[in-house]
Specification:
By secondary structure, the protein is α/β, with parallel strands linked by helices. The chain has nine helices and eight strands. About 45% of the residues lie in helices and about 15% in strands. The model is unreliable at about 25-50 and about 75-110 (pLDDT under 50).
Length: about 325
């Protein structure tokens, strides 16, 4: 800062000296160019303190030159001392067209349950539902945010008025007997109506048993009483909760069981329905098949499924399907 003012002072002094020289020179030049006047006139003008017209113009020109020179010196000093500032415009700052994309955090994939070693001589049977439901929620699969009721009571026969849970249990007990007679070890999820087992807990029983096949017995229902037939439910390809080997083997098992049942009973084969939202399937680590054995909303199938002889046919057909899959 001191250096700045020192430069300014020296420059001002130089300009002042230059200005005085210009004034004196102009004055002398003017006098030499003018004609002689009487001594009396000059004396009188000087006495009155008045300057000639030429002297006034010369003085004004010197003052202007001095002002301009001073301004240049100050501006030059400021430029040396102050850093250059970026050029500013009246244009609003343009928003960048390419912005950093806002990436959404990918949802954490559900942990895939690996298949457990299985024993082809072990079959686990789950008679779907129970006497009283449990509306408490549980995830539909490992790591899932979606939940469902742990277990429900199921449908009721349109003609027999029998509960689905009871029909399922009756056929499950027949299937147990048939499989045991064929040399299989059978693990039952329930043998009574009065239990409280969630769908996940039932899958856990099959997993711990290392079952070669996990059979889930159900009856279907529809608002349309004419709908009938047997349907198999199996996991779809890309199921986020199951390994690809379990998905594939479950589809094969389900197809075999449905075909066996329909062959033994003559019921309509509705094929497979591939789903990924069934808790009892998604928690399973062994091959699993859910078979809807018929529609108890259909009067004829309700009558059949509550008939002891027909139930025996159903159980035999399912056992045949299991055997074809395990061998």
């Amino acid at each position: 800062m001191k250096k700045k003012y020192k430069i300014i002072m020296i420059s001002l002094i130089a300009v002042i000296v230059l200005g005085i020289g210009i004034v004196v020179g102009n004055s002398w030049h003017t006098k030499t160019q003018q004609p002689k006047v009487s001594t009396t006139t000059i004396t009188n003008s000087t006495a009155k303190g008045e300057a000639s017209k030429e002297e006034k113009e010369a003085l004004k020109s010197s003052e202007q030159a001095l002002s301009e020179a001073t301004k240049k010196v100050v501006d030059s000093a400021n430029k040396k001392e102050e850093p250059a500032t970026p050029q500013q415009t009246n244009q609003p700052q343009q928003k960048q067209e390419t912005q950093q994309p806002q990436t959404q955090q990918a949802p954490t994939p559900a942990p895939v349950k690996q298949a457990v070693p299985t024993n082809n001589k072990v079959v686990c049977i789950d008679a779907g539902h129970q006497r009283y439901g449990n509306s408490a929620k549980e995830p539909i699969g490992p790591g899932a945010t979606q939940t469902k009721a742990k277990v429900t009571t199921g449908a009721t026969g349109i003609r027999s008025h029998r509960t689905e849970s009871q029909i399922n249990l009756e056929i499950a007990l027949k299937l147990q007997r048939i499989l045991q007679s064929r040399g299989y070890t059978v693990v039952m999820c329930r043998t009574s109506q009065d239990v409280n087992l969630s769908n996940k807990e039932r899958a856990d029983i099959a997993n711990k048993a290392h079952a070669g096949a996990f059979i889930r017995l159900h009856c279907d229902s529809s608002d349309n009483q004419s709908v009938n037939g047997v349907t198999g439910l199996a996991p779809a390809s890309g199921n986020p909760y199951l390994s690809s080997s379990i998905v594939s083997s479950s589809q094969s098992l389900t197809r075999a069981v449905v075909n066996g049942l329909c062959s033994a009973t003559g019921a309509k084969n509705r094929g497979l329905s591939l789903v990924n939202n069934m808790s009892g399937i998604n928690w399973t680590q062994v091959p699993v098949a859910l078979v809807e054995m018929g529609f108890i909303s259909n009067p004829n199938e309700d009558a059949n499924l509550t008939n002891d002889a027909y139930q025996e046919k159903v159980a035999n057909g399912i056992a045949n399907g299991i055997a074809s899959f395990l061998h």
